[in-house]
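Dear support,

I submitted the protein below through the web form. The confirmation email said the job was done, but the results page showed an empty box. After a refresh the structure appeared. I'm attaching both so you can tell me whether what I see now is the final result or a partial one.
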Amino acid sequence: MNSNTPVHPVKPVTSVTNSIKTRRDFKRFYTLTTRWMDNDVYGHVNNVTYYSWFDTAVNQYLISEQVLDAEHGQVIGLVIETQCNYFAPVAFPDEVTVGFVVSRLGNTSVRYELGIFRNDEQVASAQGHFIHVYVDRNSRRPVPLPGELRSVLTFILSDSDDAN
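What the results page shows now:
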């Protein structure tokens, strides 16, 4: 089997199987390469790495849109919830694309839905979500989303009512 052959050997739980996402379900994409150190003793990327990919993709987008200044901004997003389902292995030297949308845009929080796509596969190898709550950097108390941030996030708001 070559590295471009879709591999989905794990039979997902039925409730999750019916909702495995494809690239069409996402509005933004961030591509990266797996690293040798991402693989664990079982020969695939360790689960903790997927959460790093989620965080990297979203924050890279926010930085590129100039609505996140991680070092000096007065308002920062803290992850308060995260979840991931795994359907197929990813391993070094695969290329990974992280697809993402905003599924909920609140007053002080944002829920992102994300998918991990191996090489050119159209069906997610893993998918999940995380929630940012935006807080004042110093007090760590929730604050309303700044207008520019809200505008950027509205641009990638899911068209689907069933994004969750």
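Response: this is the final, complete result; the empty box was a page-load delay. The CA atoms of residues 68 and 145 lie 11 Å apart.
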